[in-house]
Amino acid sequence: MTLPLTYSDEVRAALDAGKPVVALESTIITHGMPYPANLETARGVEDVVRDNGAVPATIAIIDHEIHIGLSAERLEWLAQAKDVMKLSRADLAFAVAHGRTGATTVAATMICAALAGISVFATGGIGGVHKGAEDTFDISADLLELAQTPVTVVCAGAKAILDLPMTMEVLETNGVPVIGYQTDVLPAFWSRESDIAIPLRSDTAAAIAAAHQMRATLGLKGGQLVANPIPTEAELSRAYLEPIIAQAVSEAEAQGIAAKGVTPFLLGRIVELTEGKSLTANIALVRNNAKLASEIAVSLA
Ligand code: PSU
Ligand code: MN
After folding, report:
1. What is the pLDDT of residues 55-76, one digit of tens each?
2. Cα-flanking dihedrals φ and ψ of residue 188, to 5°?
3. Where are the beta strands (DSSP E) in 137-184?
4. Strands 200-202, 178-181: parallel, antiparallel or unpaired by DSSP?
5. Looking at residue 16, what is its pLDDT?
6. What is the mean pLDDT of the chain?
7. Where does residue 136 rank: exposed (0-12), middle (13-18), buried (19+ CB within 10 A)?
8. pLDDT at residue 1 above 90?
9. In CATH, which superfamily holds the domain spanning 5-300?
10. Going by CA atoms, what residue is nearest to atom 7 of ligand 1?
């Protein structure tokens, strides 16, 4: 059986020519931001990648195919589509086999990127260990994917709605290198800093690319996580966000939100409670990550 991969013309040409390509996820479009900001952001992020010398490959599941790069029409349709599945490793194949429309999380985007021969991927914030995971066992499959699929993922740290120390512990246990880009502390998504030290630091995209290649040379499976702080002018302070996050988390508990619903609920509620400030910050950090990911892809190519 051939792989169910459909490439956009732009991505196909870039891969054939050995040009740099950056994978982009689609859950952030369908479950992470409201319409129309999601569509504007998705388009804008693709342009950031092009402006930095690489080709964007937004990934989604449509009509029995894994799409590697979406046409402008498909992107616009997806941004408003209903009943889109939020896909991770567990349900990716099911969705493709049954012709479901699916948005790819970090885990599923990594799998699809690796199948397509793409090594670098930009997102906002990875999933991680949720607060209270000692009771709920809610640990994102993103963490285990990083341990087994050879893609370098650029993020702005783990979302501050998570238990960041536990997230770092799980990454370490599973052998995932976390590299601070021009920083020694883990960024906290909307804020530039947390209290958690990052053991590895790189100050250039080329250094991150060299470490990616060395993992392959050494036969180490899995990828790398690059933590890139949100630009200073866009950050929200931790003091401002802490009570807002606490409120959103306790509302999620009170309403019995669980499993895949947790992260979309919290992100949406925090947009409301910050009167849109968290959305503006989220957009800025994704664009910033797309720029660094493009530089890494250019260096690898
Ligand atoms: N980054 C964002 N917004 C998002 C996500 C990342 O700025 O919505 C998505 C990613 O797809 C990530 C998912 O994989 O959140 C985490 O979901 P969960 O916590 O259910 O694993
Ligand atoms: Mn979860």
Report:
1. 999 999 999 999 999 999 999 9
2. -115, 50
3. 152-155, 178-181
4. parallel
5. 97
6. 97
7. middle
8. no
9. Indigoidine synthase domain (3.40.1790.10)
10. 124
Whether the pLDDT of residue 277 is over 80: the answer is yes
Output the pTM of the full model: 0.98
Please give the structure tokens belonging to residue 146. 């990083």
Nearest by Cα to 152 from 127, 119, 178, 183? 119
% of the chain residues with pLDDT over 70: 100
Give the tokens for residue 174: 């599973």
Cβ–Cβ under 8 Å, residues 119 and 88: no
Cβ–ligand 1 contact at 144 (below 6 Å): no
The sign of the torsion formed by the CA atoms of 209, 212, 217, 218 equals: positive
- Residue with the nearest Cα to atom 5 of ligand 1? 28
- Using the atom order of ligand 1, give the atom closest to the CA of residue 105: 11
What is the rounded distance in angstroms from the CA atom of residue 108 to the CA atom of residue 262? 18
